[in-house]
Amino acid sequence: MEVFEKVDNPSGYVDYRRITGKEVYRMDMEITFPGGKRVEAQYDGFTVNTDQPVAEGGSGTAPSPFDLFLASIGTCTGYYVLSFCQKNNIPTENMRLTASIQRNPGTHLVENIRIDIHVPREFPEKYKNAVVKAADACAVKRHLNTPPKIHIIVASH
Q1: DSSP β-ladder status, 46-50 and 38-43
Q2: 26 found inside a domain
Q3: Could you give phi then psi for residue 116, rounded to 5 degrees?
Q4: What per-residue string of b and e applies to 106-116 under the rule 16 or more CB within 10 Å gives b?
Q5: pTM (global) more than 0.85
Q6: Does 10 map to a domain?
Q7: How confident is the model at residue 155 (pLDDT cuts 50, 70, 90)?
Q8: Does pLDDT of 70 surpass 80?
Q9: Domain residue limits at 123
């Protein structure tokens, strides 16, 4: 279980830091605008590139932020399925997951996400419910079930 410490931030909003053992570190991500409709996020030594589709005025050079949001749900679920299979010595070569979304026609917001775990015929029957339970532990899914508060402020520099 991750533990967080509440910290007063000089900019006036509440900050949380993850505590790992005795080490406390901030979970900061820097977002920049490299040009056009592209937006980048730098975090933990990685750069996550996003762009808008051509139809939306972008150049289509990277997934849109919303596509990455949906991919994060699928890949997180995939990680938990993979970990379960590895722990139980179940081969994953012929396994895959597919994710489908259903939008509300009025609001255009996603109302349902369905993730199917495709397993080969030889997948052990006794593990089918357990692999679904493992997939349900996805941290992204758990955050959606109990969403965080998002605070947006203007911070002059």
Answers
A1: antiparallel
A2: no
A3: -100, 130
A4: eeeeeeeeebe
A5: no
A6: no
A7: confident
A8: yes
A9: 63-157
